[in-house]
Structure prediction request, 251 residues.
Amino acid sequence: MNAWTTLNDELGRWADAGAPATLWWRDDDATHPSSALDRLLAIAERASVPVALAVIPRDIDAGLNTRLQACAQSWVLQHGWSHANHAPEGERDEEFGPHRPVATMLAELAEGWRRTAALPRSLPVLVAPWNRMDAGMLGELPKAGLGAVSTLGPRASAEPAPGVRQTNVHADIIDWSGHRGFVGEAAVVGQIVGHLRQRRAGAVDAGEPTGLMTHHLFHDEGCWWFVEELVRRVRAHAGARWLSARDAFWP
Ligand SMILES: [Zn+2]
Prediction:
């Protein structure tokens, strides 16, 4: 079956149940204004759909603040500190893993939040670089001013530590292990519909909105086409609702 037909059918079931499916959109690695960022924000504005930018705080360019002031659909989350890998050779990349003293990591996160908070519509949410971090750090986040975290895959808990909310993403449009371009509509729509079905079946936390993850600096034409198509189609469907990042983390 055509991928879009599958999505329409699934959203139809949510419409029939009288409770629209909730979704949210997270885009990673922003630091500066660019033509790719303009293109992303234009899609959000044309469709009237909020997009949450995970911004790398160490590298925030002064022009980013001005650019985001001009896009009311943009929200800002904190993407680690410098997106540096501290895992030893041979291990999976991780910025806030078990490799460094907690005090060192907290100092980076606190300074990161201070800088992130200066951007318009910023929220105290840590988007873990490479979508992973040491579970032991979760309870420490409030000490750095942060109150939520976001990684990849169905969450185990809406509040994994006291005062720390979690909302993840569930669909990745880029084929990182292959040609590093658009992975294809069948694959991405499959991930979205798969998560929506699991929510309906109670196999995962039904209250976690389904998250789309994009990376504007890496998009090929296929990625751009898909994002606009998905955002528009979901927006137009009575069985679905795009949430702002604020509503996705603190409903
Ligand atoms: Zn990243």
